[in-house]
């Protein structure tokens, strides 16, 4: 009984330590610039979240221990940034060698944020630190060194603004060294390590997350993509006739109503900092009812109603801007063209009346194969869901012709409210 009790106590404190964000030594990496080795540690939480604590070279002699923290939510973005820096580094090395440059310092345009820490007796943290990516050429002992420096800049303790550090940096002297570093912190190695130090219920939850994250793209364009499904309700504003052929007929009145309309489909989103491109592919269905009257060439009033069973494919190509960027929610504004394609719509004439020579058989429905319109609206994202409201500006696809003349040409402008669910999230 005593042994069981002791085991339970040990398990309890093990679980408490893991959930308490305790750090475990994961691996080390070489800094060939100063010939030292630095540790990389991992901390984990009970909801399958890891953080990398990467010790780095101090940029002054005041505090020797410090570095950067890579949270799991920023892990793939960090790998992307290093890959981008490596590509720029390779190009700059080529230019520097051709030009025989002996001293050079160039800042790279890479927007990367992380958390940082340093030890000044106490452990000090600073959040949302902008990392600096620099290319340097230095001559040492008659030999040229081409360096990539990733540094934090000056750090200030959160709990004491008077405690400061010049910062810490990762230094690489070749593309091989960069590749070796990224392999050391690969997701496969991290999750294997986490599985070894974790046990029980927490391990099971993290293994589920492991399979999910290992399937994510780790770098490149795919790390910026969101994919999801969506469905929405469409309501059409009362349409009025915008044009007709007055030389043959005189319009008396014309209007259209949409009783119910729905759409469903998929969407993708590719982010570029504040901007994003969002293509969609939607199937739309509904019912329209038109009421029209006009004077024929003998000045006889003609009245008719027609009903359209709408079936279309819609392809909006939207460009958006992120107005409000929070950790759990975003507010966006977007606009762009929309291509609408007929997908089997049908038309019925429910009522026809005239005292003149025109008959219902003389009316011809000219169903347009395509129409080009314009969408604009607002989108609100919260967690895995997205809600948008948009105004759609487009001409009607179902004008009626009498002989060779178009009788109606009604706008089909409307409001669309949609709810979406994100199936694949960006990793940055």
Secondary-structure map:
Blueprint: H1 2-19, E1 23-31, E2 36-44, E3 50-55, E4 57-58, E5 66-71, H2 72-99, E6 104-107, E7 113-120, E8 122-130, E9 132-140, E10 143-151, E11 155-157, E12 160-165, E13 168-172, H3 175-184, H4 187-197, H5 200-214, E14 225-236, E15 239-240, E16 250-272, E17 275-295, E18 301-325, E19 329-342, E20 346-354, E21 363-365, E22 370-382, E23 385-393, E24 400-402, E25 405-406, E26 414-424
Antiparallel strand pairs: 1-2, 2-3, 3-5, 4-13, 5-7, 6-9, 7-8, 9-10, 10-13, 11-12, 14-16, 14-26, 15-16, 16-17, 17-18, 18-19, 18-20, 19-22, 21-24, 22-23, 23-26, 24-25
Helix pairs in contact: 4-5
Number of structural domains: 2
- The count of DSSP E runs of length 2 or more, i.e. the number of strands, is 26
- The gyration radius over C-alpha positions equals 32 Å
Fraction in beta strands: over 45%
**Classification by helices and strands:** alpha+beta
Count every helix, treating DSSP H or I runs of 4 or more residues as helices: 5
Shape: elongated
For the largest beta-sheet, the strand count, sense and barrel status come to: 8 strands, antiparallel, barrel
Helix content: 10-25%
Low-confidence runs: 1-20, 200-206, 208-220, 240-248
Instruction: Report strand order across the widest sheet.
Output: 14-16-17-18-19-22-23-26
Give the N-terminus to C-terminus distance in angstroms: 50 Å
Mean pLDDT: 81
């Amino acid at each position: 009984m005593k042994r069981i009790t002791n085991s339970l106590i040990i398990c309890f404190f093990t679980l408490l330590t893991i959930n308490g964000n305790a750090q475990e030594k994961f691996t080390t990496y070489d800094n060939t610039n100063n010939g030292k080795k630095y540790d990389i540690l991992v901390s984990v939480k009970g909801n399958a979240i890891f953080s990398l604590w990467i010790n780095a070279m101090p940029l002054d002699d005041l505090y020797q221990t410090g570095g950067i923290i890579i949270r799991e939510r920023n892990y793939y973005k960090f790998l992307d940034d290093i890959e981008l820096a490596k590509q720029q580094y390779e190009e700059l090395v080529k230019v520097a060698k051709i030009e025989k440059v002996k001293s050079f310092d160039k800042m790279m345009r890479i927007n990367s944020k992380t958390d940082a820490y340093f030890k000044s007796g106490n452990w000090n943290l600073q959040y949302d630190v902008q990392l600096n990516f620099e290319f340097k050429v230095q001559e040492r002992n008659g030999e040229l060194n081409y360096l990539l420096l990733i540094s934090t800049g000056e750090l200030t303790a959160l709990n004491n603004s008077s405690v400061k550090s010049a910062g810490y940096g990762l230094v690489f002297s070749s593309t091989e060294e960069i590749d070796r570093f990224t392999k050391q912190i690969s997701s496969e190695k991290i999750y294997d390590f986490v599985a070894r130090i974790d046990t029980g219920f927490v391990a099971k939850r993290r293994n589920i997350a492991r399979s999910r994250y290992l399937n994510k793209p780790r770098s490149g364009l795919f790390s910026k993509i969101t994919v999801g499904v969506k469905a929405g309700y469409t309501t059409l504003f009362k349409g009025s006739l915008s044009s007709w052929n007055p030389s043959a007929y005189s319009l008396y009145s014309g209007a259209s109503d949409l009783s119910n309309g729905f759409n469903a489909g998929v969407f993708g989103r590719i982010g570029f900092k504040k901007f994003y491109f969002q293509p969609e592919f939607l199937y739309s269905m509904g019912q329209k009812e038109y009421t029209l009257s006009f004077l024929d060439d003998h000045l006889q009033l003609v009245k008719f109603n027609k009903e359209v069973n709408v079936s279309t494919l819609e392809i909006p190509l939207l460009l958006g801007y992120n107005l409000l960027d929070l950790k759990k929610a975003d507010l966006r504004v977007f606009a762009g063209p929309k291509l609408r394609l007929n997908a089997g719509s049908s038309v019925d004439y429910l009522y026809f009346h005239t005292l003149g020579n025109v008959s219902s058989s003389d009316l011809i429905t000219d169903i347009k194969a395509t129409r080009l319109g314009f969408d604009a609206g607002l989108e609100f994202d919260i967690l895995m869901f997205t809600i948008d409201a948009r105004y759609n500006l487009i001409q009607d696809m179902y004008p009626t012709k009498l002989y060779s003349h178009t009788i109606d040409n009604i706008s089909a402008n409307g409001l669309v409210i949609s709810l979406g669910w994100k199936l694949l999230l960006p990793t940055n």
